[in-house]
Amino acid sequence: MRIIAGEMRGRLLKTVEGMQTRPTSDKVKGAIFNSLGNKVLDARVLDLFAGTGNLAIEALSRGSRDAVLVEKSRDAHQVIRKNIEQMGVGHKAKLLLLDAFKYIDRYPDEVFDLIFLDPPYREGLVLKVISTLKEHPCLAADGVIIAETAKDEELDGDIYPFEIRKTGKYGDTKVWYLQRMDV
């Protein structure tokens, strides 16, 4: 797994051993960042279920201002810490060993331009996080939530005040782009 663009382009990231963590593939990551375009520039990024830190570090490489990475697995947390150090972005990245839902509840006033959600597939976690985010002003007015699910999963449920602006399927992954309805 590598950084695919920006100032850290081509640099390799460490991965978590075993099957607990499923990093976003380069193909999917490329599609996500191509869709986001200039929204990445100077963005505040929240990476929930950060895994290896792949998405947040890619955003930092492409010009995001800073990132908060939240991961509850100790093994994954250690890998993210090493990746942050290895890439030299410790001054822009805040890493927390914490459950995603606890993070949202503890820091309800933090506002982000991009929120990445890449939880384990088929556990309904994306919809649960979106339901939790609805109650907090975490997403900037023109911000984007980027969620990954299995390709056959749907976001069935009340997601208001967010709406799905775009989706894309890449292999076994479906990517959802959500924004506030009033934008």
UniProtKB/TrEMBL annotation:
What Pfam families does this protein's entry cite? Cons_hypoth95
PROSITE patterns from the UniProt entry? N6_MTASE
GO MF terms listed in the record are: 16S rRNA (guanine(966)-N(2))-methyltransferase activity; nucleic acid binding
- EC annotation? 2.1.1.171
The keyword Transferase belongs to this UniProt entry's keyword annotation: yes
Q: Which Gene3D superfamilies does the record associate with it? A: Vaccinia Virus protein VP39
What's the top EC group for this one? transferase
Q: Which InterPro entries match?
A: DNA_methylase_N6_adenine_CS (IPR002052), RNA_MeTrfase_RsmD (IPR004398), SAM-dependent_MTases_sf (IPR029063)
| The entry's keywords | Methyltransferase, Transferase
NCBIfam families from the UniProt entry: 16S rRNA (guanine(966)-N(2))-methyltransferase RsmD
Protein name stated in the entry: 16S rRNA (Guanine(966)-N(2))-methyltransferase RsmD
Could you read off the lineage of the organism from its UniProt record?
Answer: Bacteria, Bacillati, Bacillota, Clostridia, Eubacteriales
